[in-house]
Amino acid sequence: MRVKKWITNNLGLKILSLVLAIGTWFYVNGELTRLKNEEEKTIVNMLRYDVILKKLPIQLTIIGEVKKGYEIVKDNITIEPKMCVVIGPKNILSDVSFARTMPVDVTEYAKDIDEQVALAPIATGIALKDNFVKVYIPIVQKKELLSPQKEELPKNELTNQ
């Protein structure tokens, strides 16, 4: 008799609790399955692209003109490091042969430039190991080629009188 009373006492609440527990179980199980499927899709997408590391030379981008009478000594420009490591999908990186710096504006400069310069983004999905390089751009005064000029003597010295 006690068992029957124990089962039938608050029967509505017990049924409601059972329905809520079963509903909660289905919801949690569905969310776990959805998350697992998303993880599998992400892994499959990552495996679809061969991710590689590639070492690229860095090219300096210069804009503008130095001050009149000055010039850049292009042979003495230095970039440290000279190479950068990039990481990305093989199908994108196979077409990339160098990395560029962000533009360095030399407009009206009359002295050397020695500064940190950011590397320009290559493409979506490509990560750069280093984001900055040290750049040195030597700027010197132009050496004018002087043509020998004939000295002109005053007219009165030209004639022997």
Summed up, what is this model?
The chain is α+β, with helices and mostly antiparallel strands. The protein is 33% helix and 28% strand.
Q: How is this structure best described in words?
A:
This protein is of the alpha+beta class and 161 residues long. The protein folds into two domains: 2-47; 50-141, RNA Polymerase Alpha Subunit, Chain A, domain 2. 33% of the residues lie in helices and 28% in strands. The strands form four sheets. The protein has a four-stranded mixed β-sheet with strand order 6-1-5-9. Strands 4-10-8 form a three-stranded antiparallel β-sheet, with no helix packed on it. The protein has a two-stranded parallel ribbon with strand order 2-7. The protein starts with a helix and ends with a helix.
Keywords:
161 residues, alpha+beta, RNA Polymerase Alpha Subunit, Chain A, domain 2, 2 domains, four-stranded mixed beta sheet, three-stranded antiparallel beta sheet, 4 helices, 33% helix, 28% strand, rod-shaped, disordered C terminus
Largest beta-sheet details: 4 strands, mixed
Q: N- to C-terminal separation?
A: 158 Å
Report the top-level CATH class of the largest domain: Mainly Beta
Secondary-structure element sequence? HHEEEEEHEEEEEEH
Outline the secondary-structure elements.
Layout: H1 2-8, H2 11-48, E1 51-59, E2 62-63, E3 70-72, E4 78-80, E5 83-89, H3 90-93, E6 99-100, E7 104-105, E8 113-118, E9 127-128, E10 132-137, E11 139-141, H4 155-158
